[in-house]
Structures are given as structure tokens and as C-alpha cells.
Amino acid sequence: MTFESITVTVDQLLFSANNRYFLRGLTLDIDVGNLPKQIPLNRIVSLTLHESFCIKVIENCLELRSLKLIGVIKWVSCTINSISRANTKLNQITVVTPTIRSLTELFTSILSITSLRRLEILTDEVAESFKFCILPAPLSKIEQFLLDSGSTINWNDLSQILPDLSSIRFLSVNLIDRNQKLIPSFIFQNLRTLSLGLLEVSFNWIIQLVATTPCLIKLKLTGLVDADDFVVNQRWIHLSESTPRLLRIFVNVSLEQSKELYHCEKIQAPLCALNLNLVCNGDDNDCNLYYGELEWLLTPINFTNITHFDPRVHKIDQKAKLYLRKAPLNVQNMVPIEVMADGNCLYNSIICLSGNAFLTHSELRVRTILELIKNEVFYNNSYSHIVGPLNEGIKNITHNFSFSELYELVGLKNVLKCNIRSIYPNIDYRQDLNIMNSTFEYAQFNLPSNTIFIFWTHTLNEIGARNNNAGNWTPNHFVPLILPSNNPEFQTNLSHPQVLSSDTTPTKSTRKNSIATQVRIPNFNMEDGEQQLFLTSPMISQPAEEISTTPRTKRRQYSIENNSNADTTNVENQRTLARERMSINRAQAIPEEVERQRVLARQRSATRRASFTSQEIEQQRALSRERNSTIRTSLTPEEAAQQRILASMRTMATRATASPKIGK
């Protein structure tokens, strides 16, 4: 197979009418005589054209997106006029011409192409005597404009055209000399990136120009400048003050001094204080349209968490406080803070703990996504078997107000550079939920890190949550936990939370052998009756002074007291839930059901009274008399009269319904 046969085969494939391939790059050089007829001009996307070709070639390129014209300015203007009448998809034009006598005429032709987004003009000379005027062309949508000239350009004249480019976001102009007057009053509202080629331009002129670009993010300066004017003085601070959003400054200028002066403390320290970055090379991608946002998001966040409750700032979440009773004992004295339950509750909790008014949930979402993508392999291998695939989790995070999961909680520890302790209540608890009760540590173990507490809770009480979820309970809300303000010594107990809730085996050590060895913990499988017997053992009720105060005894007493408190708390919780269930059932019951429940209650009472002994009956009567007397003494005269009337009515109703025998 020869090269010619390969070329013929490729031509047949590309130029076949049956294949809809687009030609990405077609260059028609000066040496090309006649254009082959088999070239499908209606499928050309990018074209480079010299002035030796007829304008009709452009008219047939209906799918053209990028065009580069090389020739004299008259031929270029005629070609652009033909494009504006035939093509509406062109979004980039590059003009290479030796001399431009009238930029006004060229712009008049170019601005008539409404689909244009990027314009490049490369010329050796721009006439000095041209005059700009306000162009009658419609408002352009050009976002990127590059003007590279071998001769100097008057910025004041050029700026008269720029108002017609109101959508411009990237501007590059070369060359600008020292003979510049004051900056016009026109403000570049949308300009993000500005690149200037300088020829001994003063730094004061740069400051005045940058002041007209309030949204500028990146500034690039190249060329020849005065060393004393650009480096030695402290006017970089004035430059940054005029554009508060400026993030990057690229400097690649020729100076009499060495490059090390850029990194001296006189310049670098003020720039660092203003979060600016001074780069001393011109290796920069000007076509990057991110405009520095990525550098801002990759800058580490400065997070310092609050630790104690402030009643002037915080509000207690009462429902979360009830759920906190079913959390581990060493966090039950902490205070749950109320945050907005709008799907961003995890990020709202972080904002509440930071106390930073400028931190937003959107920024935390984006930073979390970047963290998960950057360490995708680690998170996927560690948590995908619990939460699901990471890519599905990231898709969910990208939607604002979407509920957070374990991925976000784990990713935030590296975003905030602190440990995050996740606390899950003991409700419908399963073995696979152990990871929800864990402390996720920041990756850099050699650095001291704070620990924040995030609690899984629900916006409804347990009864309401179960009714809305087919009898199951699952959390739908996050709240932060902090220490109470009136109990600062509790902070010492929380400084090592893993002592009480750690799943690792403890260790012991002696003075003779400093090597730590594991202590075997026996497992006891006690029945409920045996455990209750242990908790109610007479040894527990002995006075404290009769028990030895050895450390082992203290630990045993502490464990027994905690278990007793936990049992008491559980009993109270069960009673509260029972009352809530009864009130809900009564509110939802129909009249027939209410009457049936009353009949059943009377039957139960009659059965219970029938089983009483004579002594129990007398005891019940005595208790009833005491209750009635207590109630009567607490009544007001009006209430007592009302009770007498009701009693008389009940007596009359009883007599009316009684049988004749009973009546006699």
C-alpha cells in the first residue's frame, strides 16, 4: 500500500456525500491555484483564507465557525461584508493585515456579524491620523478582543470604540506608549481579564486605567517599563484598592534591575496581605475563561469554630434536644443549635459554628465537590459500599437545597481542616450505622486540629416522623452541638470524647515495660432479668463511705450511675411517647370509636374492682375521698357551685334510667 493510495482512500472518505464529516481546519494558501470541486464547502468549520481567492468561497461555507483572513485591509473588509450577509454561525474572526488605515471602517463591517464572540486583529502598523467616531452598528456581543500592533496605539482614541463592545470580558492591546492622556470616563462593567503591552508607560496610568474596571480579576503587563516606577515604590496597594476583585497579576517586563526585586518584602508582603499573587513570567493562558475563580476556590478556607453557647446569638433546637437524650452520654449535656432546615442544613451548621458572615452555603458546596473530585479514588473505595457510588453523590451535591449525606460530612473535614464528630441517635439503630457515630479526622495528622460536633436529627418529633415514613425513623436534618455557656468545665470532659465511645481496645503499661499492650475485654451476655438484678443490687444502695474509693470502684460507680440515669431517661422518654400517641389517637378517633373506648374502660374498671379484696376496696375509697377533698378545697366558689349542679344532673339522669325495682 502506497502513500498515494492512502491519500485517495482518505479523500474518498472525507469528501463522500454519504458521510457528514465536518472539516475542522482547511487552509487555502497563496500557492493553491484552483479549488478542487469535491471539497464540501458546506461542511467546513474552520478556514484560513488568503486574498488570492474569490469571495464566493466564503459564501458557500454555511457552517463556518472560525475564519482567519490574511491580506490587505480592502480585501478583508469586502470579505467580511459578504460574510455578514451569508453566515450567521461565525463566532471567531482573525484578521492579519500589514496596515490599517481606518479601524472605524473595519469595525463597522465586523460589528454587523451578530454571532461573533472573539475578534483578533494582527497588524504591523495602525495609521496615526485616523479618527474614531461613535459607530452606528448594533450593540455587539463580542466577549474577547485582541489588538496586536507593531506600532503604538492611542488608548484614548481606541476607547471610543470600546463602548460598542459592552459585553467584552477579555481585552488584550499591544503596544501602548508613554504618550497617554487621562483615562476616559467609560467604565468596563464586564471586563474580567486585561492584558497590556507597554512601552515605558507610567504606573500611575495603569492605576487610573484599572480603576475603570470594577470587575477585573486578572491583569497581565508585558513590555518595557521604568524599573523605579513599577517595582521600588508601594503603589501596588493603590492598584489593588481600585479593583477589590483583582486576584492575579502577571508581570513580564524588561527592567534594569534583576527579577529578584519582584519577590522582595516591599512588594510581596503587601500583595500577600491583600490575597494577591504576583507572578513574574508571561507563561499564561489568556484564553482561560475561568477568570481566577478556581484559584479563589482552591485557596484554603480560614475556619475557626466557636465552642460555647451564646444566648444572644444562638437559639436552642428543642426537637433536637429531645433526640439528644438518645445520643451517647458524653454529648447529652451539649446544646443543639437551631439552623435553617432548607436542605443546606449541614452547610448552615458549619456557618453557624464559624461565625463568619461572609461564608455561604454555596461556597461550601463547591469546595466540597472539589474535595470529592480531587480525592475521588479514596472516597469511592472508603464509602461507596455504605452510601453508594461517588458520582451519584456528586450529582446530588451540585443541586442547591439538596439534602446532604455521609460524603459531604466526610469531605468537609478536609475543606475546613478540622475533625468532625458525627453523632447519630440510638433510634432503630443497626450495626451498619456505626460509621454514623464516628470521628472523621483531618488528613494531616501531624497538625493539631479542632473537633466540631454534627448531630443527625429530625424536624419532627419521633411520632410525627414515623407517621410520615411508614413507621420508620430516618433523620432529615443536621444541627451543630456546642458546649453550654454556664458549664465551662464540661469542655474538659469533651476534649477526649473517644474515651467513652471508642471502639478500640484499651491499653495498659507499667513502669518496667513502657510498651503498651492490649487489655482483653470479656463479653458478657446477660439476660434482661440478670441485668436488672445487677442494677438493683443491694450493694449499690450502700452508703458511699462504706465502699472503697479505689479507682476501680469509682469506675464501677460511675458506670452504674450512668446506666441508672440512662434507664430513667429511657422510661421518661417512653412515657412521653405513650402520652403523645394517646393524644394523637384521641384526636383522630370518630365518636363511635370514642364511645367504644369508654365502654371498654368501664368494663376494665369493673373487672379490676371485682378482683379487689375488702382491704383494697377500703384503701381505694380512702384514696378517692382524699383526692375529692383536695379537689374541693382548690375550687373557687363559682366552680364549687358548678360542680354541685353537675352532680345533681348526674343523679337525676341515673334515677331516670333506673328500673322500677331499683327506684323503689
If you had to describe this structure to a student in words, what would you say it looks like?
Residues 559-571, 608-617 have a biased composition (Polar residues). Residues 493-513, 542-571, 603-641 are annotated as: Disordered. This is OTU domain-containing protein. This protein has 664 residues and is of the alpha/beta class. Among the domains are: 19-168; 318-498, Cathepsin B, Chain A. It is built from 25 helices and 18 strands. The chain has an eleven-stranded parallel beta sheet with strand order 1-2-3-4-5-6-7-8-9-10-11, with helices on one face. A five-stranded mixed beta sheet has the order 12-16-15-13-14. The longest helix is centred in the C-terminal third of the chain and has 38 residues, at 551-588. It is elongated, with a radius of gyration of 41 Å.
**CATH fold assignment of the domain at 318-498:** Cathepsin B, Chain A
**What Rg is obtained from the alpha carbons, in whole angstroms?**
41 Å
User: Structural class given helices, strands, pairing?
Assistant: alpha/beta
Distance between the termini: 130 Å
Report strand %. 5-15%
Number of helix segments?
Answer: 25
Please identify, by name, the CATH architecture of the domain at 318-498: Alpha-Beta Complex
Q: pLDDT below 50 for ≥5 consecutive residues: which ranges?
A: 256-267, 280-294, 489-549
Report helical residue fraction.
40-55%
Q: Looking across the biggest beta sheet, what order are the strands in?
A: 1-2-3-4-5-6-7-8-9-10-11
Q: How are the secondary structure elements laid out?
A:
Blueprint: H1 3-15, E1 26-28, E2 46-50, H2 56-59, E3 66-70, H3 73-86, E4 92-100, H4 103-110, E5 118-126, E6 144-149, H5 155-158, E7 170-177, E8 193-199, H6 203-210, E9 218-224, H7 227-232, H8 236-242, E10 248-254, H9 265-273, E11 277-279, H10 293-298, H11 318-323, E12 335-336, H12 345-354, H13 361-374, H14 376-387, H15 390-397, H16 406-416, E13 419-423, E14 439-440, E15 451-457, H17 462-467, E16 477-482, H18 490-494, H19 498-501, E17 507-508, E18 517-518, H20 528-535, H21 551-588, H22 591-610, H23 614-634, H24 637-657, H25 660-663
Parallel strand pairs: 1-2, 2-3, 3-4, 4-5, 5-6, 6-7, 7-8, 8-9, 9-10, 10-11, 13-15
Antiparallel strand pairs: 12-16, 13-14, 15-16, 17-18
Helix pairs in contact: 3-4, 13-16
